[in-house]
Structure prediction request, 313 residues.
Amino acid sequence: MKVYYSIDDFQKLEKAVVTTGTFDGVHQGHRKILSQLNRVAKNSGGESVLLTFFPHPRMVLQPDLDLKLINSQNEKIELLKSTGIDHLIIHPFTTEFSRTSSLDFVRNILVNQIGAKKLVIGYDHHFGRNREGSFEHLKEYGPLYGFEVAEISAQDVDDITVSSTKIRKAIESGTIEIANQYLGYSFPLTGMVVEGEKIGSTIGFPTANVRLRDNLKIVPANGVYAISASFPSQSEQGMVKGMCNIGIRPTFGGKFQTIEAHLFDFQADLYGQEISLHFHRLLRREMRFNGAEQLKEQLKSDEAAARDFLAKL
Prediction:
């Protein structure tokens, strides 16, 4: 898969088969669209192209929403690479770009710059200024500008009933298993292991304190989760099971949210290393305890629950 960070960097193709959208999460619904994109490209002797955007359009058009994303840009690229598409264009989304009319978007960008001969589009897809463009517009433009439209039917999309918005809500509420079911993979957080207050070590549960690499990423609800961890810079190191606490540590008067992972049967100095936490299940919500001993007893129960759950994966 070739990656371009602007439409201007892309060399027009003879036979481009194109879809477009934000694709945050690269979830099961997105994969169905991309599978059809690849199939149409293969059957027509063309090359598959996904045109997507960064920042997410809602971040530009509705900044007060404080939208957080399911994927970092690097995660999104890796997930899209696994789908087998030929070309990925990540075009900068700006206020100026948002004013592009639906006609100019189709004629100037999809046809003249990318070389679209076929478009693979969902039945409810909208595009262009104020989302004025629709599937019906594309069918009108097709004969004028020399492309065909392959529609993804309402039934195909509704069979999955997945949306990035639903997934974000599931992550924010802590229903991580539902999010993972929609995603088709375990939701990850990636960051650097930094020095913490070492409270966990004093009660027999040392933790890796994780500072997120991307502050645009959504973070699951406060609580304790069963996780697995991987180390991007150490491909030879397999997955390590563990549990992770997200919260403010109310037992110790904390005021700021932290992400702390306790890895099972693992001994290594992780300071300064990159770590990816893969979330599998919420074990419990964040709680305040009457001191370190009560917390320690609860953590023993949490570990037992996490080990039991992870052993079944």
Observations:
- The domain at 2-162 is CATH 3.40.50.620 (Rossmann fold).
- The mean pLDDT is 90.
